[in-house]
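FORM 12-B: Structure-to-Sequence Request
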């Protein structure tokens, strides 16, 4: 279990679902999850729970009264010959059956719907929380694991923690309590027998739940790992096929599948070991009642009708005993899922909005890096980076792979914070700006193009959905030289592209990505090796379009000299530090790293 409890309270906790829900909520509160406390999700639908519990109580009470009328039929109608009582007693029994049918329907429907709604609320808030987490979390988290938390674990929590299983647990507690009460009314002596049997069933249920908790925890972990392998393999299917790695991926999946099978078998063995014992106990109840009660009838200690009612009550204890194993199974699953969900919900974003953010009324796009250094995993990524880029000007950044070029953009977006130094937008430290204003002020074309499985027009509108007309979409596609192939598609801009742009070439995806950045119309435009997949002619045409954006501040990262040569200033990075800086002509005159790159691409300077 999640919490260590004294044995006597543990049994009470297990049998009392109200105590269970309260303790779970308090545990959530004590941990201080960023997700709303679990009890608040339940209280949001308090009126539904009250209605469902009312139906449950009414239906259970009347159903448990029914054997009393059967007792009257046996004792008074059959035993005493009062046949005139039979129609009334039969009508009462039939009426109880009809009432039970309606209350059962409303009870189960309301609990199921409410559990689903609570699950949806938890899922939405968890997704909202995940959206706020910083990139450092996603650098380590597996997509498959997060998908498992969002779907499987929340479904298990909704079903076993706040839905159907809670209803069933309440019904078991109420039903057993009422049945024991009527048993004592019929015969206190005979009632001692089931009371001696019930603790054995409770004891077995507690042991079963403790064993299941660990197994479900392991199953949930392995399920997340298996989902990750499957998701990565499907997402990277082209790479897998290109390298002919199908067998390797199959074996990797087989190992996780085998482990999942082993854990499932372990779960099955636990259930098989204890369920026959539950079955034996449930069979002993009516048999014992008949043997002991029969002698009491002969001795005149209980009437025949009373014994008949008592046997019915014993039989009605069978289904709670049988369900204890299943209920404990689902409770264990819900707790294991809750722990997984809470682990994600307890993650705290490193990058957050300031308490009182500064608002820039009109962002012009001036960017300043002042002595900025950045480490990641104790490794120096950037060292003392400084530059001042006036609004409307262009900065080119060059350097070998791993020199820190993309890290400059990462810090500008505040995906990470610099360790030392400051970064300013229009003279304001970006840590004093809200993340929304900062990131809305910058449009990006990344080297790793990500397109959503949606229409081309929706992908272009993604950066600025509101106010981006069809004409703007078409114009931006033309500026990015994407309309050349988009117009040839069957649905043109409304053509749905595959996940991550599957079906499009690298150059086509880059051009749509450029169109998306242009449609955002942000004061700062950053391009991270954004034309690497384009032919020279198309690259020159797009560079001409970018040059025409006179009021836009541009930061261009490139490996090609042609991408940065017209920049107002070019910095060359080496091992995370600025090795050279100047205009194209000035850097050529230095005959350093930039010059060597130029010679490698164009030959010696005349």
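FORM 12-B RESPONSE
SEQUENCE OUT:
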């Amino acid at each position: 279990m999640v919490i260590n409890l004294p044995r006597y309270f543990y049994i009470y906790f297990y049998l009392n679902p109200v105590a269970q829900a309260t303790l779970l909520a308090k545990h959530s509160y004590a941990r201080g999850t960023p997700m709303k406390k679990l009890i608040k999700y339940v209280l949001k639908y308090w009126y539904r729970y009250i209605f469902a519990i009312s139906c449950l109580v009414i239906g259970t009470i009347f159903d448990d009264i029914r054997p009393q009328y059967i007792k009257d039929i046996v004792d008074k109608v059959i035993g005493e010959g009062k046949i005139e009582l039979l129609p009334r007693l039969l009508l009462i029994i039939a009426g109880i059956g009809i009432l039970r049918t309606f209350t059962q329907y409303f009870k189960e429907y309301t609990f199921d719907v409410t559990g689903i709604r609570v699950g949806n609320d938890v899922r939405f808030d968890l997704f909202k929380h995940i959206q706020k987490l910083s990139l450092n979390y996603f650098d380590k988290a597996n997509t498959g694991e997060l998908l498992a938390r969002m779907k499987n674990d929340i479904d298990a929590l909704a079903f076993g923690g706040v839905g159907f299983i809670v209803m069933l647990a309440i019904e078991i507690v109420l039903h057993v309590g009422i049945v024991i009460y009527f048993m004592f009314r019929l015969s206190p002596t005979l009632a001692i027998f089931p009371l001696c049997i019930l603790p054995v069933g409770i004891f077995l249920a507690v042991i079963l739940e403790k064993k299941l908790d660990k197994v479900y925890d392991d199953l949930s972990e392995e399920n997340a790992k298996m989902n990750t392998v499957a998701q990565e393999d499907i997402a990277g299917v082209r790479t897998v096929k290109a390298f002919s790695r199908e067998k390797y991926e199959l074996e990797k999946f087989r190992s996780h599948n085998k482990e999942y099978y082993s854990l499932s078998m372990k779960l099955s063995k636990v259930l098989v070991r204890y369920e026959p014992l539950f079955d034996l106990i449930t069979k002993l109840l009516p048999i014992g009642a008949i043997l002991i009660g029969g002698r009491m009838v002969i001795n005149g200690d209980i009437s025949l009708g009373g014994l008949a009612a008592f046997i019915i009550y014993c039989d009605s204890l069978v289904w709670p005993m049988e369900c204890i194993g299943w209920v404990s199974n689902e409770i264990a699953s819900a707790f294991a899922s809750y722990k997984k969900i809470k682990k994600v919900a307890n993650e705290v974003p490193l990058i957050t909005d300031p308490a009182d953010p500064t608002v820039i009324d009109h962002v012009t796009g001036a960017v300043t890096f002042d002595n900025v250094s950045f480490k990641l995993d104790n490794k120096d990524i950037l060292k003392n980076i400084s530059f001042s880029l006036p609004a409307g000007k262009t900065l080119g950044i060059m350097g070998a792979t791993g020199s820190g070029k993309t890290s400059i953009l990462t810090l500008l977006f505040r995906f990470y914070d610099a360790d030392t130094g400051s970064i300013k937008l229009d003279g304001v430290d970006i840590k004093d700006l809200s993340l929304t204003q900062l990131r809305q002020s910058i449009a990006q074309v990344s080297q790793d193009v990500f397109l959503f499985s949606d229409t081309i027009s929706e992908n272009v509108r993604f950066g600025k959905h509101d106010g981006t007309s069809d004409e703007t979409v078409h114009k931006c596609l033309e500026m990015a030289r994407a309309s050349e192939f988009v117009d040839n598609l069957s649905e043109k801009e409304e053509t749905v592209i595959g996940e991550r742009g599957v079906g499009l070439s690298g150059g086509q995806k880059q051009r749509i990505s450029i169109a998306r950045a242009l449609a955002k119309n942000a004061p700062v435009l950053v391009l991270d090796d954004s034309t690497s997949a384009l032919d020279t002619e198309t690259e020159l045409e797009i560079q001409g379009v970018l040059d025409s954006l006179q009021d836009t501040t541009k930061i261009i990262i490139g490996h090609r000299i042609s991408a940065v040569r017209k920049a107002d200033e070019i910095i060359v990075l080496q091992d995370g530090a600025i090795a050279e800086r100047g205009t194209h002509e000035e850097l050529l005159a230095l005959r350093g790293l930039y010059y060597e790159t130029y010679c490698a691409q164009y030959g010696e300077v005349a």
